[in-house]
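Hello,

Our lab assistant flagged a job as stuck in the queue for most of the afternoon. It eventually completed. Since we weren't sure the result was trustworthy after the delay, we are filing this so someone can double-check. Below is the sequence as submitted and the structure that was eventually returned. Let us know if re-running is recommended.
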Amino acid sequence: LEEIPRPVQDSGNILKQGYLEKRSREPSFFGSEWHKRWCVLTQRNFFYYANEKSKQPKGSFPIEHYRARLASQLRKDSRKKCCFQLLCPGKRSYEFTAPSPAEAEDWVEQIQFLLKADLSSLTIPCEEEEEE
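-- returned structure --
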């Protein structure tokens, strides 16, 4: 049984992980603009690695102000139903292709769930809830 390396910066729980294709910011003329990345979603951050054995992420960003949505307009091919985006006002957006439409939906749902859960637990102390 192989141990999955934990992201060093974040010992938080891993909510979801798996291979996604990530769209590069500067599409190269030579290769695909989509690169396979091992992606890890924790309660605070989204990490992406070259592969699941990598110890150092190629990149990461705090997930808290992002929202996720399915985005079939990102591709023209048969995998367009597998695409989703992470969007944040004023920040770079991220675009991914999942292995299947169901996986894409699951990533989106996990991220939306995380944001709802997190925001509600962070903002309002319980006693003051009636004052809305």
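-- support follow-up --
The delay was a queue issue, not a problem with the job. The result is valid. The chain has a mean pLDDT of 84. The helical segments are 101-123.
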